Amino acid sequence: MKKKRRVLLAEDHATVRDGLKLIVNAQPDMETLTARIRAEYTEMPGLRLTLAQACRLWQVDRTTCESVLERLVAERLLVQTRDGAYIALPGASRAIKAVLAGPPLPRRQIA
């Protein structure tokens, strides 16, 4: 479910409103962005990005990008290295693929 964003404008001018709508609508919602970044790290083992590189790759502002990356660190998908790069933890992509695939099928006993 997409949340509505409310913005209070001090200057209510049509040009300002139209410009602000374009900016707000251009930003993906957090869930979509998180899923996209999670998928990128899952599909590309060894992906190593600094915050600045991640912002450019996913075309989002620094605050939003940092928030999503920290969320993925908290989920233990990513880890931040000493030099500030974000990399996937070993085995994280297998675990995520398993979760995305759904519950395992029950095993049948062969008599």
Task: Please tell me about this protein's structure.
- The chain has 111 residues and is mainly α.
- The chain has a domain at 27-94: Winged helix-like DNA-binding domain superfamily/Winged helix DNA-binding domain (Arc Repressor Mutant, subunit A, Orthogonal Bundle), CATH 1.10.10.
- 52% of the residues lie in helices and 7% in strands.
- Strands 1-3-2 form a three-stranded antiparallel beta sheet.
- The protein is elongated.
- The mean pLDDT is 77.
Query: In CATH terms, what is the architecture of the domain at 27-94?
Result: Orthogonal Bundle
Query: For the record, what CATH class of the domain at 27-94 applies?
Result: Mainly Alpha
Rg measurement, Å: 19 Å
Q: Indicate the proportion of strand residues.
A: 5-15%
Low-confidence stretches: none
How many helix segments?
5
* Largest sheet, spatial ordering of strands: 1-3-2
CATH superfamily membership of the domain at 27-94, which one? Winged helix-like DNA-binding domain superfamily/Winged helix DNA-binding domain
Mean pLDDT: 77
Q: What's the end-to-end separation, in Å?
A: 48 Å
Helix content: 40-55%
Order of helices and strands: HHEHHEEH
